[in-house]
Amino acid sequence: MNLSMSTGALYNDQGGAEAAVEAGQESTPTSLSTGAAFGLFSADFKKNEDLKEMLESNKESLKLEAMKRVVGLIAKGKSASELFPAVVKNVASKNIELKKLVYVYLVRYAEEQQDLALLSISTFQRALKDPNQFIRASALRVLSSIRVPIIVPIMMLAIKEAAADLSPYLTISFQTLCLLSSAWTQIRRSS
């Protein structure tokens, strides 16, 4: 077996080896025959402690890799709610891809962890004033998707400000939000 072939196979089998190397950890699996010892959804995370450490790292690449894994766990139907404090710290990240993954997580778990979800609201309020229309629209969508009753006044203020925004992208997001809001109101009344 040539060296490049074995290295490529080892990398593919390990999945998250790059993140472990960046963290300065040795990434040698306990047995090469296990194949997915460090795979994307590995059981070796010991109750997500490795993910928590990656989320609290100073390296954006580790945080991004961890959030991809967390969203992957959610997609597989596994609970990642114990990571909420570590995830919510990353809501203010400058990395757009990381921020989007954190938003996905927040929409999923904010209702269960309402007190901690409130910590992210000020970040959304700042994002609603960002010069980038895509960031403003994303913040508006996420803020309106978080089902925490105490933030309704903040959400209504954000919607009011969005109605006056001249950005085409934000206008479309606002119109979609209004349609969804109307549908939710009708569903609640009929229940």
TrEMBL record:
Domain (Clathrin/coatomer adaptor adaptin-like N-terminal): residue spans on this chain: 48-170
Broad class of where this protein is predominantly found: membrane
Keyword Membrane: yes
SUPFAM superfamilies: ARM repeat
Pfam families assigned: Adaptin_N (PF01602)
GO cellular component: endomembrane system; membrane coat
Any coiled-coil regions, as ranges: none
Subcellular location: Endomembrane system
Keyword terms of this UniProt record: Membrane, Protein transport, Transport
Record carries keyword Transport: yes
InterPro entries cross-referenced by the UniProt entry: AP_beta, ARM-like, ARM-type_fold, Clathrin/coatomer_adapt-like_N
Topology class, membrane: Peripheral membrane protein
Gene3D superfamilies linked to this entry: Leucine-rich Repeat Variant
Domain of life: Eukaryota
GO terms of biological process kind: intracellular protein transport; vesicle-mediated transport
Protein family: Belongs to the adaptor complexes large subunit family.
UniProt xrefs under PANTHER family: ADAPTOR COMPLEX SUBUNIT BETA FAMILY MEMBER
Descriptive protein name: Clathrin/coatomer adaptor adaptin-like N-terminal domain-containing protein
Taxonomic classification: Eukaryota, Metazoa, Chordata, Craniata, Vertebrata
